[in-house]
């Protein structure tokens, strides 16, 4: 499939990819297996095969062969072990023991060596792939040496692997640091078959440049060796750059920049990041309290210290003051996210949403985050399940979903997983509200049919996107649910016709 794109190089981006022909939305541009899969940095104790959380204490489940963390299910099925096999043999050979921890919710530095170790094993097993795809990847050793984690990696990974693990004669310090850097800068998050988080290195996808408005999407299939399939999300003409994304798109510029600088060692200069209004969405803008219609926006989005100025009056404030206010708001959201999943949580999020109404632009990323929480709650928590929702709350959920879709059209345009999930959330209240209004005599047969057809189109688009996901994943399962719902809805439409 390499004919879908070609790799070029320039001083600003290094290696990057452009379309080699006109590409249609949804078209596959590459498939690849990971060079390595394993735990993320700073993971709490987890199973070294399936990545599920485990007790890292003395009584926690351990591999019966090497004594490192392994859940009971994986221990009972040793013949199926794939990812833990080589390190297990190494730990046994060199008598390397896992040191039990007291707090199994805190990061376990002993596990920081696991994914780099798997990378090193893969380097030995697949030297041709290493030379062709991995050796040319960025690892920013000069920038990383100035960072907080270099010395930590030197102790917990480099010296540990070359010392107690007995790899001094197989891998130099430079190669191990190169591997750590390649992982830090280029790895993508993966979800295991059980839904737990890890990281995987996909060097061909890693060629794609980053943008906070990506035009490439990917799906990972844990049930098929974590095979990755990348597609274009929108129609792309020949010669256009192909962009993936290394950060969460639904956060503000300051948050995205901080994440990219700390973990990927670069400053993003995509059109969205350079625009104080974030492509006209005002995703980070505040409402001015000194005038009626003014919005407070940054004078330089790439500088946290830059002044923020009102568009309607002379008011100014420091960037640090804005960041402090956002941190306080985010802390409130985080606190509510820890509440029990029930009606009190829903009420608390609605209260917070109203609280920020006079402070934040309607589409601000903080309000967008609250919308996402409310969408998840309406229709699911006791007292607010879908059949119980009155028309006014069905309309509320529709409004919340449409606001999110509006934002996604700017930041994740085209056939994306996020769009599909929101379309599924949106179709339900549209159907329920239309049926309710028909029963009340507000809607007649033909308008009812149009509303149901609108919902059917949403289900059709949703299932067509989610069928790209692993069939065993939550998204893959939802694809089948959406297809079944679509069939039922089409039958209802036939009856009306």
From TrEMBL:
Taxonomic lineage of the native organism: Eukaryota, Metazoa, Ecdysozoa, Arthropoda, Hexapoda
Domain of life: Eukaryota
Listed InterPro entries: SET_dom_sf, SET_SmydA-8
Entry protein name: SET domain-containing protein
